[in-house]
Amino acid sequence: MLINWKKIFSEKYRKVFYWALFDFANTSFSITIVTFVYAVYFKETVANNQPIGDFYWSLGTGISMMIVALISPFLGAIADHSAGKKRFLLFFTLLCILSTASLYFIDEGKIIEGLILFILANIGFEAGLVFYDAFLPEISDEKNYGRTSGFGFAMGYIGSFASLMIVYPLVVNDLVRYSFPASALFFLIFSIPLFLFLPDTKKKIQLEKSYFRIGLERITFTIKHIKNYKNLGLFLLAFFFYIEGVNTAIYFSGIYAKSTLHFSFSELTFFFMIAQTTAVLGSILFGIIADSIGQKKTIYMTLIIWFVVIISASLIQSKIGFFVIGIIAGLGMGSTQSVSRSLMSKLTPENKKTEFFGFYSFFGKSSAIFGPIVFGFVSWQSGSQRLAILTTGLFFTIGMILLSKVKEERAT
């Protein structure tokens, strides 16, 4: 069978590629800073490997997510009104990149400075996703939401793998701080195509009030009329709980492996390479499954995977066993978020896409406040990260119960 190159390079597919390439770019931040290198560096070097370091790290993630949770609905409403998603995305992307590069100057004992820069970088990363996610309905049709979203996450995990290849020689040669500007440069270079080539919906507007006032009015209107979107509200509540467990596992996976199982930086790099590889497969596989059997059933499948991961992680004693857990975790890591994003696109009214994605971000980001803080507090007080990781199971359970009541139907 001949390959239809004309179809592959059509405008439609080019848009998807430019969009997904941003995912390829920004995951250099999530893997290098949030999940692995800086997370471990902060606990071991900046916080002198004290048990309270887990709690400090949870405060950094919690504060940044709280700020993003509060501003996301405003950002979504404002971008929806002005249709200027790219300029907002550019601002937050640059905030993340500059703050990440500045982490190079953080060394032993600089806890406050290290947290402030991390908070600013994470705000830039997470707030930017409000606008990035809102492009999905513009570049894909409903029947392909799962595949397109899964492709984006798959590209992201390929980007994570590439980032790990770049930072590996730095971390194993005691040049850990150099990995932070390297990650920032990677993000900068591969995010450029989206800003240059992906079209943004433009419309001529005449503003009679400030963007903040417009955002506030639209959010107030949405909250007052949320009774008209009960099904979507129920999904957002379910998403809040189950993604809480996902976020917590991601934020503390590197610290857990280093502190509890005594992984070296070299072993951790290989561990995350394996996890990113299976995450690529999981994102694509479950994207296809979601388009075949529905997003809701698919999300259930990924949450079962997470239950297996957290229970196994709390019991495992060997490094080899934890590598196996990494393979399994990778399957659920991208797929849960990817399929949730495609279900959100399906349940959201067409004329309020960006605004509701702001609320989607609000629930996703605010959920990342409580889980990490609970983990950090339990770990600090009990001295056991094995006990702390089991707390995520409660969030998965509540999320699954609420998800069972969601109707998987197209919003009107």
Task: Describe, in plain words, how this protein is organized in 3D.
- By secondary structure, the protein is an all-alpha fold.
- The chain has a single domain, classed as MFS general substrate transporter like domains (Growth Hormone, Chain: A).
- Helices cover 81% and strands 0% of the residues.
- It is built from 17 helices and no strands.
- The protein has helices at residues 5-8, 11-35, 37-46, 52-82, 85-102, 111-133, 136-139, 145-172, 179-197, 211-224, 230-259, 265-293, 295-315, 319-347, 353-382, 385-390, 392-403.
- It starts with a helix and ends in a 9-residue tail after the last helix.
Mean pLDDT: 83
Structure summary, number of beta strands? 0
Q: List low-pLDDT spans.
A: 1-6
Approximate helicity band = over 70%
Class by alpha and beta content: mainly alpha
How are helices and strands ordered from N to C? Answer: HHHHHHHHHHHHHHHHH
CATH class: Mainly Alpha
Contiguous helical run count? 17
